[in-house]
Design brief:
There is one protein chain. By secondary structure, the protein is mostly helical. Helix content is 73%, strand content 0%. The protein is built from 6 helices and no strands. The protein has helices at 2-24, 30-44, 56-62, 69-86, 92-112, 118-129. Helix 1 runs parallel beside helix 4 (69-86). The chain is globular and about 45 Å long. The chain starts with a helix and ends with a helix.
Length: 131
């Protein structure tokens, strides 16, 4: 039980950190990103850059039966959005796909998790209004 509570708190803390960065357009230093990436690797079970080649369905299926499924899916979606935000304009197609997939995962969590997050709602609204 303690381990599960700790995982949930870690997931929520990272999600808040990324959401804040996306909402305020804050850029993090490389050292901060490395620390975030290490935590993401531990929580999701793979490095954040591997998410670039994964589909939303693959990510949702990956956590089937996991007690922290929704938190991990939301973290994966936020990671997609952060990676998209950090990509160069020359990678427009990949940048757009990651953004759409991240938004799709946030909608999935919003509609299926049974929990409400004002931060998630604001981020979804911002992403949809910016097209």
């Amino acid at each position: 039980m303690i381990k599960e509570d700790y995982l949930v708190r870690m997931i929520l803390e990272i999600i808040s950190l990324i959401a804040n960065a996306l909402l305020t357009k804050k850029k993090y230093r490389y050292s901060e990103w490395v620390e975030y990436d290490c935590l993401t690797r531990q929580l999701l079970g793979f490095p954040s850059e591997d998410i670039i080649g994964m589909s939303t369905e693959e990510l949702i299926d990956k956590y089937e039966g996991d007690p922290n499924k929704m938190g991990k899916i939301e973290l994966a979606g936020m990671t997609m959005l952060k990676l998209s935000d950090d990509m160069e304009a020359t990678q427009l197609l990949q940048k757009s796909k990651l953004r759409q997939d991240g938004l799709k995962l946030l909608h999935y969590v919003q509609n299926n998790s049974g929990s409400f997050s004002i931060q998630r709602v604001q981020l979804i609204g911002l992403l949809e209004s910016n097209g």
